[in-house]
Amino acid sequence: MQTSKALDGPFLNGRVCLVVGDITKQTVDVIVNAANSTLLGGGGVDGAIHRVGGAAILEECCEIRRSRYPQGLPSGEAVITTAGNLPARFVVHTVGPIYGRHDEREAELLAACYKNSLRLAVQNSMLSIAFPAISTGVYGYPPAEAAVATSQAIMEFLATGNLLNEVRLVFFKQSDMNVFLRHHKFR
Ligand code: AR6
């Protein structure tokens, strides 16, 4: 059951749509988690995904930490796990930049989050993906600036030729979506 409805767009020939809703309720192939480098859970989107998805996700995250990222997942990188009890099939976990902590590389790192997440989805033959507004909560990224970096990254990725037919941007509040609509660079 889809509990949020498309409120604006679509953009980029119908491949990008915007909704107001809860990322954990999205019925798509893969949802993206705004994780932290520990991959062990947290608040916000991360807390909601682990709470609804259940223990299977945390178990896989622990294994990824142990086998591939003992120092933690760096900002801008992404990994994929099962989605446990979520309606989606997979979860991509990516670590957004903490605003003001990366020597002005924040936009580059936020773009890398989106592009690496999209790349993992394509590599795993996914056709639809839903993103929250990465870094715009606890990590303090100004939503207007995030809209610019996010939309440019998605637009560049979709132009590379792939079968992804839905990139859904999920905003928690209508006011968040309105900021995005005023500042995005989709054309
Ligand atoms: N569905 C959709 N969007 C949501 C939801 C939800 N269920 N919950 C919050 N948002 P945040 P970050 C919005 O803080 O800034 C965690 O503790 C929220 O309003 O989840 O990347 C992690 O473990 C905001 O606009 O992610 C990290 O330590 C956006 O999603 C840290 O927070 C992102 O907010 C990551 O911070």
Précis, in short:
With 187 residues, the chain is an alpha/beta fold. Helices cover 36% and strands 20% of the residues.
Description:
With 187 residues, this protein is α/β, with parallel strands linked by helices. It has a single domain (4-183), classed as Leucine Aminopeptidase, subunit E, domain 1. The protein has helices at 44-53, 55-67, 106-123, 143-158, 174-183, and strands at 6-11, 16-20, 30-35, 78-82, 90-95, 128-131, 166-171. Strands 1-2-7-6-3-5-4 form a seven-stranded mixed β-sheet, with helices on both faces. A hairpin with a 4-residue loop joins β1 and β2 (16-20). It starts with 5 loop residues before the first strand and ends with a helix. The model has no long low-confidence stretch (mean pLDDT 95). The structure holds ligand AR6. Residues 22-24, 34-36, 42-46, 48, 96, 132-139, 170, 172, 176 line the site of ligand AR6. Ligand AR6 binds at residues 22-24, 34-36, 42-46, 48, 96, 132-139, 170, 172, 176.
